[in-house]
Amino acid sequence: MKTAIVTDSTAYLTKEEREKYSIHMVPLSVVIDQQSYEEEVSITTEEFYDKVRNEKQLPKTTQPAIGKFVAKYQELAEDYDEVITIHLSSGISGTYQGALQAGDMVEQIEVFGFDSEIACAVQGFYAIQAAKMAAEGKNAKEILPVLEEMRQIMEAYFIVNDLAHLQRGGRLSAGAALIGGLLQIKPILYFNEKVIEPFEKIRTRKKAMKRVEELLAEAVSRHNELDVTIIHANCPEEGQQWMDELQSQYPQCSFKLSYFGPVIGTHLGEGSIGMGWFRKNA
Question: Which Gene3D superfamilies does this entry report, sorted A to Z (predicted)?
Answer without folding.
Answer: 3.30.1180.10, 3.40.50.10170
